[in-house]
Amino acid sequence: MNTDIMELQIILITGMSGSGKSVALHALEDAGFFCVDNLPPELLVPFVALEKANKASRVAIAMDVRTATSLPLLPEQLAVLKSQGISVKSLFLDATTGTLVRRYSETRRKHPLSQFNPDRPETDQRRALVDAIEHERELLAELREKAHVIDTSIIRPSQLQGYVKSLITTSGEQLTLVFESFAFKRGVPGDADYVFDVRMLPNPHYEPELRHLTGRDAPVAAFLQEQAEVTQMLEHIQLFLNHWLAALARDHRSYVTVAIGCTGGQHRSVYLVEQLVKLFSDQWVTLKRHRELEAL
Predict the structure, then answer these.
(1) What gap in Å lies between CA 99 and CA 4, rounded to an integer?
(2) Which residues lie below 8 Å from residue 262, measured CB to CB, with a gap of 6+?
(3) Taking Cα atoms as reference points, which of 114, 93, 128 lies closest to residue 18?
(4) pLDDT in the model for residue 122
(5) pLDDT tens-digit readout, 217-267
(6) Which of 287, 277, 272 is nearest to 230 (CA)?
(7) Which contacts (CB < 8 Å, 24+ apart) does range 46-55 have?
(8) Residue 85: which H helix or E strand, with range?
(9) Residue 6: how many CB atoms within 10 A of its CB?
(10) Which residue of 80, 235, 249, 258 is surrounded by the most CB atoms within 10 Å?
(11) Angle between helices 74-83 and 122-145 (to 10 degrees)
């Protein structure tokens, strides 16, 4: 393959400390990216220029709050690259505060912004950790707003790797629709732009012959297709998205995540995600995730 004519693909990974950035970086390394962790923001533009001169084709860069003093420079650096015609796809990894506290407690690592004092009572140390996490959220708020967010709170590392690898196959120049099924009993995905609750629809779980199947199986799909409420819900979601997607694209949105939730994330939400992907894939780039099924 002639790298001289290949466009340089740059993935920028930011996010909360403890949210899985190293897992995402390893996934990109496996996918053939040259990966750099904790690059100071002020070096971004010269680093990209160097990689272009070296005829690089795929580069992944991780930045986080460890470079807090220069982090405010990052939006300006990204604007410079954009003015040079260089596209950067930004991924932001997030997780709930409770999840991050648990991960730090399990690994006994020190948060980059925490003022750890071993002489403090455990309750005071936890409070200091929570304060550090919330301060980090404030520092990263602008970067989160301009990136595609992946909530890693309850997904396994292998799921995160799969999400990252699927996202790098899409073009950052056009809007990508991400449809995700989930179970309300395990929490609403924190990366969702729109959430539709379909728990009021007829539930195949109560049909003994369908209980152990999923919304991807033909018998479940046939059952749900016979339910007028399911058809109406699908039409309403389709109508809503058809009305607003063009406006979101004009607003330079790269990704829109639409989450469909039912009680267990096995039947109704899965079926609707499968149908929505079919309906929208001709007009938009679409990706699908089944959070609970992929966790099995």
Answers:
(1) 44
(2) 181, 183, 184, 198, 199, 201, 203, 268, 269
(3) 93
(4) 62
(5) 999 999 999 999 999 999 999 999 999 999 999 988 889 999 999 999 999
(6) 272
(7) 48/8, 48/10, 48/81, 48/86, 51/8, 52/8, 55/3, 55/4
(8) none
(9) 12
(10) 258
(11) 20
Q: Tens digits of per-residue pLDDT, 116-127?
A: 555 566 667 778
pLDDT score for 192: 96
Main-chain phi, psi angles of 49, to 5 degrees:
-60, -40
Smallest CA-to-CA distance from 157 within 293, 27, 5 is with 27
**How far is Cα 212 from Cα 205, in angstroms, rounded to an integer?**
8
Distance separating alpha carbons of residues 30 and 156, to the nearest angstrom: 17
Written as six digits, the tokens of 232 are 């109406």
State mean pLDDT over 103-116. 81
Query: What integer pLDDT is reported at residue 118 of this predicted model?
Result: 55
- Residue holding tokens 């403090």? 120
For Cα atoms 232, 238, 240, give the angle at the middle one, nearest 5 degrees: 105
188: left (phi over 0), alpha (psi -120 to 50) or beta: beta
- Indicate the SS3 state at residue 125: helix
Say how far apart CA 28 and CA 291 lie, in whole Å. Answer: 21
The CA-atom distances, in angstroms, between 137 and each of 11, 41, 140, 193, 200 are 21, 18, 5, 18, 35
